[in-house]
Design a protein that fits this description.
This protein is α/β, with parallel strands linked by helices and about 550 residues long. About 35% of the residues lie in helices and about 20% in strands. Strands 4-3-5-6-7 form a five-stranded parallel β-sheet, with helices on both faces. A hairpin with a 4-residue loop joins strand 17 and strand 18. Helix 1 crosses helix 2, helix 1 packs across helix 8 and helix 7 crosses helix 8. It is globular and about 70 Å long. The termini are far apart.
């Protein structure tokens, strides 16, 4: 079932569970309302085998690239398996891309076929699909005239050969969401995938009884390795989310034992709790020994996290206040760190050894160091094969002794735990010639509940300034004067508090609260919810001079 001195590919584990756990549930897919479609291991791998038969019948060149454009769903996983069974390479696309980026990735990757899956904005994307590119659709796909998964599976017999994929073979090309420039195609081998799945599963002591909810994009390496690949390695049950509106319901259906999310969602969960119970009341109830544990359990149950024994936040920094709030509920919220270039197999906080503000310690086999200029350098057993069609960029990304240049600044404490302190390239210089790292300042500003997301800028300005967006539930209040007055007083206090922790040249001159919504769709955020600094700074550049002339510490735009 495998090759290379005992190496087993993700396919080998799928074949293993197809027999050993044939009738156990593997994938649970919401179909609308209370309806779900459930796939046992036997059915999921069996449908992948039938799709593999069809793909083989197309007589595509060996190791052809086949793309998947879909939100997370059961068919996404089955497509991945089918592509590998047929001897091909998977090219995942984020389900939030614009047509221009869709076309670039499909053409740059030389994709020969596209699975069009569950999507909200297909009408905006389809112009990016070349006219001559064959497409297939899922049951949850938007209306189209493509061949359907169901029809193909019904018309083809299973591909019964247990395909062997070697450790050094290319498994997938993951296009980075990058905050600047064209996305780069990160080539990940089967060996890297297997090593990452094995390392994280064993480090976290995952069991085949785990349950996970898959909703962060499978097109991103973190979900692909920590959810898809871990489920294949360990053999546990995956659930999928239907939509944002049903997310809490989906979470309660899954009752995950391991849950991975991003800072914005952890903050939204907390806000949902506060909308039902004030922070003051909750804190008071938690102070009463007899009922505190009951209150905490009820809060976690209402969130769908009462069975969760391992919770992780990744993609961006999470405020210390929110981490401590969850820990007060009895949920030890951890942080993690990784990059597309090492399949996100890098760092994670470990239970009992976590330190707030640090992204954890190296996973098994990972080496870390800080360069003379303060850059984090990582050597991971899940390192990429390189960038697709860009050997020069690949060479530039590594030191001579094989460490990945992350572009992140960091510190390592006495126990080997890593702290991210900013980006090497994000540092800007004020008109006074002083250098400022924006990320740490943004982390300090994010403690205020009135700020959903913030960008600190100030290149060639006398002092740094901050542009902030209100949380979704407050955005309609942007024009309300009473709300503005109250929020402005709070933000003035925040500026004073944050500036007291900064050197004089880093002090924030003002915060401007804008009425715009920063989203993935309008290109202000990457698909992993990171701010696109160049987009934000260029968008507001014409207003900066006016903002400074106003000589106010809080502005509304």
């Amino acid at each position: 079932m495998g090759a290379n001195n005992g190496f087993l590919s993700p396919l080998a584990y799928a074949y293993k569970w197809e027999k050993a756990k044939a009738d156990d549930l593997y994938l649970t897919q919401p179909m609308g309302g209370d309806q779900v479609q459930e796939y046992t291991w036997n059915r999921a791998v069996g449908e992948a085998r039938r799709m593999a038969s069809y793909l083989k019948s197309l007589d595509l060149p060996p190791k052809s690239k086949i793309a998947i454009l879909s939100k997370n769903c059961a068919h996404w996983i089955m497509s991945d398996l089918a592509i590998w069974m047929a001897g091909y390479v998977t090219v995942p696309l984020y389900p939030t891309l614009n047509a221009e980026t869709v076309r670039y990735i499909l053409e740059h990757s030389d994709s020969k076929l596209l699975f069009v899956g569950k999507l909200d904005d297909w009408d905006e994307m389809k112009a990016g699909v070349p006219d001559d590119l064959p497409c297939l659709s899922y049951s949850l796909s938007p209306p189209n005239d493509f061949q359907t998964w169901e029809q193909i599976v019904a018309d083809h017999k299973p591909f019964m050969e247990e395909t062997v994929r070697d450790a050094d073979e290319l498994a997938t090309i993951v296009y980075t969401s990058g905050s600047t420039g064209k996305p780069k195609g990160v080539m990940i081998s089967f060996g890297a995938m297997s090593m990452a799945a094995k390392g994280v599963s064993e480090a976290l002591e995952m069991k085949d009884s785990e349950r996970m909810l898959s909703y962060l994009p499978l097109a991103h390496v973190f979900e692909r390795y920590a959810v898809e690949q871990a489920s294949l390695y360990v053999g546990f049950h995956l659930f999928f989310a239907e939509a944002l509106d049903t997310f809490v319901q989906d979470l309660k259906r899954a009752r995950p034992t391991v849950f991975i999310s991003v800072p914005r969602l952890w903050a939204k969960f907390q806000l949902g709790v506060f909308q039902k119970m004030t922070p003051e009341k909750l804190k008071f109830l938690q102070s009463i020994p007899i009922i505190s544990s009951l209150v905490n359990k009820k809060v976690l149950k209402n969130l769908g996290l009462d069975h969760c024994h391992f919770a992780v936040s990744g993609s961006a920094p999470l405020s210390e206040d929110i981490i401590n709030w969850y820990r007060g509920l009895g949920l030890e919220l951890m942080e993690g760190y990784g990059m597309s270039e090492n399949f996100a197999y890098s760092h994670i906080s470990m239970p009992g050894r976590a330190r707030v503000g640090y992204v954890g310690e190296p996973l098994p086999g990972v080496q870390q160091r800080i360069s003379e200029k303060g850059e984090i350098e990582i050597k991971s057993p899940a390192a990429m094969m390189g960038y697709y069609k860009d050997d020069e960029k690949t060479k530039e990304s590594y030191t001579e002794d094989g460490f990945l240049l992350t572009g992140d600044k960091g510190e390592i404490d006495e126990l080997g735990r890593l702290k991210i302190t900013g980006r090497i390239k994000e540092i800007f210089k004020t008109s006074k010639g002083k250098y400022v790292a924006p990320a740490p300042i943004e982390n300090k500003l994010m403690v205020d509940q009135a700020i959903e997301v913030v960008c600190v800028a100030g290149a060639d300005c006398a002092q740094p300034y901050a542009v902030a967006v209100l949380p979704e539930h407050l955005q309609a209040m942007h024009g309300d004067q009473a709300f503005r007055d109250k929020t402005s007083e709070s933000l003035k206090g925040l500026i004073k508090f944050v500036n007291a922790t900064l050197d004089q040249h880093e002090a924030i001159q003002f915060i401007v609260v804008v009425s715009d919504v920063w989203g993935i769709e309008n290109n202000f955020l990457t698909p992993t919810m990171k701010i696109k600094r160049d987009v934000i700074e260029s968008h507001y550049a014409p207003k900066v001079e006016t903002w400074f002339k106003a000589k106010e510490s809080v502005l509304w735009d």
